Amino acid sequence: MSLNKDTPSCTIAVTAQSDVAKPIGSTLGQRAVLPWIGGFLRPYKARVIAAIIFLFIGSLAWLSLGQGVRLMVDEGFLQGNGNRLTEIIFLMIAITAISSSAIFCRFYLMTWLGERVSADIRLKVYDHLLTLSPGFYAKLRTGEVISRFTADSTLLQSVVGSSLSMALRSSVTVVGGIVMMAVTSLKMTGFVLLAVPLVLGPILFFGRKVRDLSRQSQDRMGDLGAYVDESLHEIHTVQAYTHEARDRILFNHRVEAVMDAAKGRITYRSTLIATVMFLSILAITLVTWVGARDVIAGTITSGELSAFMFYAVMVAGSVATISEVIGEIQRAAGATERLIELVDTPVDIPTVAAPAKLPTNVRGQLALKNVRFAYQNTKNEGGKDDLTQEVIRGITADIQAGERVALVGESGAGKSTIFELLLRFYTLKSGVIELDGIDIAQLNPQNLRRQYALVPQESVIFAMSVLENVRYGRLDASEEEVIIACKAAKAHGFISAFTDGYNTYLGERGVRLSGGQKQRIAIARAILADRPILLLDEATSALDAISEREVKQALDRLMEGKTTLIIAHRLATVLNADRILVLDKGQVVASGHHQELMLSSDLYRKFAHLQLIM
């Protein structure tokens, strides 16, 4: 198997850590996290309001227990009134029941909102990812995208459904507790408030640090996921070259990078929790000492001091809870920023506001006029995209409707790139490509791509059934039409041999099929699509001699009346072409029939002897 230089290079499993792609966050601005999440909560504002109401009910019910403690001490214990004590106990039980019911409703609603928001974010991110061109995925590894798509949204789900709810509940408890403390004793409340800045200071300082370090930790996790996806996807190559030991070392480096990023976050978060706990307990202890002296002096009653201490403990516990969950919230903020960056990634294939319309019956006439193109995946010394390395250098060609044109040339000559430009996966540096006289840049990309049926050299098989794989070419096709297409592609025989026939699950990337079987499924898909232009990237390269002859017959029928471009590596392919374009270093250097080129083109003659005829 040869490397195809026509497409941008991809990172392989042996990539050193220093070659890790930079996250797109380094080039995109940040947006406010809370307004962004609020946009996803807005459609469910009724549930949000209900959750907030139940949150207040639950918190206020717990706060009212402090007054129950005061009454129990002053009117029960100290007065020796057993009946009054019983009444107060039943009152406290009723308040607890109300609070528990409110907690159930609040927990259910917040957890549901967490799941729903996470699902909506995944839908929005995936919808946007489908609009980004292959050029985006050539720069950012798929594994990192998957990490952002899954791990980051899962973390956000946990925070919205749990941590945020705890933080809100604790905040209400802190405010309500301070109010009730003030009602009980302004003097002692004043002492408590003196400690508030001492507690809030570490929360603000360490919380910001935790957020920044959480973002770094998530980036390292994305790098780790990308490497796992990469090495396991290419496990055949890894094991064939006994590269396991080296991959273990490289994987270990990435695991340690995750650990190093986590150490700082853990340190700051642990310091935050310990500092807040110490300051809170210290404040309670000092205030208790002041309160005990006031009870001795007769300034306040024992019940009031008990109620005050009840509220103080609740406030301290709530502050401790806030300090604990603030780390999770800051982690979620970092993860959300990464998701926002994906959603904010601009679509790199621009579309016009009022796209041109193709005729009802597209003829399939193509014209390339002085087309120039360079992949934007190389960097110059300044770190900016270097567009000087042109892959296509001023190609001009007219392809008539129904014509069969073969593209030949050495690897890296630009053959596959032409296919990608015709499909408008990339934007031209200069020049124009026309379909039936219309500049394809003026067309809606999806409408344009509906005119092409693509059969790549490396056939793409999805993890679904045979029927669904073939129907990928035309979703509204009936099962009978799928079978007819498979018969034309000479695939019906081996499909029928499967236990479940056309309902057979083919496994991830078609692991259950041979190379030739994959190609025939891909050809059947193109036959079923029945589009006016065919792009065949040596569609029979993985077939044996007998199957190749049969499939060629099917392709000949398929190509009738259709404009066909074929990337050719075999003599039989070019002999059947109406015209041959010889490419060299991104330029068309010769054009004509096989016999003409054998006489007029030294490059074609050399190529024919070395590759086509062999």
Question: What secondary-structure arrangement, pairings included, does this model have?
Answer:
Blueprint (H helix, E strand, L loop, with lengths): L32 H9 L3 H33 L4 H48 L4 H6 L2 H43 L1 H48 L1 H6 L3 H54 L4 H43 L21 E8 L18 E8 L4 E5 L6 H8 L7 E6 L2 E2 L5 H5 L2 E4 L10 H6 L7 H10 L3 H6 L17 H15 L3 E5 L7 H15 L3 E5 L3 H5 L3 E6 L2 E6 L1 H7 L1 H11 L2
Parallel strand pairs: 3-8, 3-9, 6-7, 7-8
Antiparallel strand pairs: 1-2, 1-4, 4-5, 9-10
Question: In a nutshell, what does this entry contain?
Answer:
With 614 residues, this protein is an alpha/beta fold. Helix content is 62%, strand content 9%.
Within the largest sheet, what's the order of strands? 6-7-8-3-9-10
Structural class: alpha/beta
Principal-axis shape equals elongated
Give the strand tally: 10
Oligomer: single chain
Low-confidence stretches: 1-31, 378-383
What is the CATH H-level superfamily of one domain? Answer: ABC transporter type 1, transmembrane domain
Mean pLDDT: 77
- CA radius of gyration: 34 Å
What can you see in these coordinates?
This protein has 614 residues and is α/β, with parallel strands linked by helices. It has a domain at 116-344: Up-down Bundle (ABC transporter transmembrane region fold), CATH 1.20.1560.10. Helices cover 62% and strands 9% of the residues. It is built from 19 helices and 10 strands. It has helices at 33-41, 45-77, 82-129, 134-139, 142-184, 186-233, 235-240, 244-297, 302-344, 415-422, 445-449, 466-471, 479-488, 492-497, 515-529, 545-559, 571-575, 594-600, 602-612, and strands spanning 366-373, 392-399, 404-408, 430-435, 438-439, 452-455, 533-537, 563-567, 579-584, 587-592. Helix 16 links the parallel strand 7 (533-537) and strand 8. Helix 18 (594-600) packs across helix 19 (602-612). It is elongated, with a radius of gyration of 34 Å. The model is unreliable at 1-31 and 378-383 (pLDDT under 50).
